Amino acid sequence: MIVKFVDRKEELSVLKRIYNSGKASLVIIYGRRRIGKTRLLLEFLKDKNGLYFYVPRGSEEVILSEFSKTVENDFFKGFRFHDFRSFLEYLSKKAEEKIVIVIDEFQRLAEVEGAISLIQKFWDEKLSGQRGMLVLSGSSIGAIRKIALRGDAPLYGRRTLALNIKPLKFQDLREWFPKYSPEDLVKVYAAFGGTPAYLEKIDGDKTPEENIISLILSKDGVLHDEPEYLLFEELRTPNRYMDILTAISLGKCYLSEISDFTKIKRENLTTYLSSLEKLDLISREQPVLVEKKKSRYVITDPFFEFWFRFVNPNKTFLELGLNENVWSNMVEDFNAYLGRVFERISREYIVSEIKSGRIGIDADIIGRWQYGKEEIDLIAYSSRDRKGLLIETKWKELSYEEAEKTILQLIEKSSLIKIDEKKYGIVAKKISGKEKLIEKGHFVRELKDILGLPI
Fold first, then answer.
1. Which residues, 6+ apart, have CB-to-CB distance to 356 below 8 Å?
2. What pLDDT digit, counting tens, does each position of 393-421 carry?
3. How many helices (H) and strands (E) are present in the chain, helices listed first?
4. For the chain, what is the radius of gyration of the CA atoms?
5. pTM of the model
6. Is residue 57 part of a domain?
7. Residue 38 placed within a domain
8. 2 found inside a domain
């Protein structure tokens, strides 16, 4: 089934700009499996002279057989490339005209002796002087870094562009699931994240809870073991990484906490954490506008955070078919988890508003502030203008009095921060008296504002 095509306007625009230049270009596209790379490339190829080749798992003979089927019409029925060099000779001939050539899952060519070196040789000696656009796409991030992105990689320094395809944003879910309420969209995003191939499994006629139970919690669910498959594909010792991700999902975000939970020594732990960062599964965050910066680790994708927080610790019970019981026991914790996800959604929204210029602060520093036991969910700060927007996020419906109290607490905490001009704000599920707070000069947004819904 072809994954529904949503958003990706920015990625398409970049690819079209390179194509329209009319110059030879080598583009590397990478990202986790099922993130929508192939769907993006097929959309890009729609109105262009192009060739799409898929690299299957297997020997050189199996791969060349697959490639040959794609170009049979250029030759004769039953045509076969006899070796990888003849395939590249064919591509270089086609690249004399303006054409897009896509090789999908190209990292598997590293298993064919000499294939990557031949691509490098043909690019240097022929393709780079022609008019073709060569797109190499793949989903094994570690392998792609080794082949094309690291300083010692065979293709390093030759690429015109390296495009890392990320999951869809929360706002994109409104287009995908028009029947769901804003609150239901948050639940969907919290459990399934923004990976298109996960989202397409959801039955929009069922509740988010029903989809979570059947697709993720159920031992027969299509996404029940998905994170394990990815880790086993990318890493040599996946169990260690699973322990680390479980620790972070449960709120053990600092190095010492992760070490205590996993029993991995700190000096070894940093290597594991670095590998997870390179796979875009975690990121390291530091508090902003403080002198002492203590890094904490967060899982970047809500689906993986949900899985390691709720599925992995309950594997024994889920394998017994007790998915309904597990859900009943986790509902309260899931609602608390939604608060963390809403904070992520709010930050994503604020960043987009800053980029569009709708906030009025040319922020170059964005993040959480923490000093001792005091915290502020989000600060957007312009170091040039010394202006800052301080925001608290609340996954609840607030009365006017509760919202005003939250802002007063923000003002009190802000006395510890050196910012010349401060503005205060709150982002919540719903806020009574929102307009009155805005009239007082505060930045106030509700969930429906994030989704661009009418008042």
1. none
2. 999 999 999 999 999 999 999 999 999 99
3. 20, 12
4. 25
5. 0.89
6. yes
7. yes
8. no
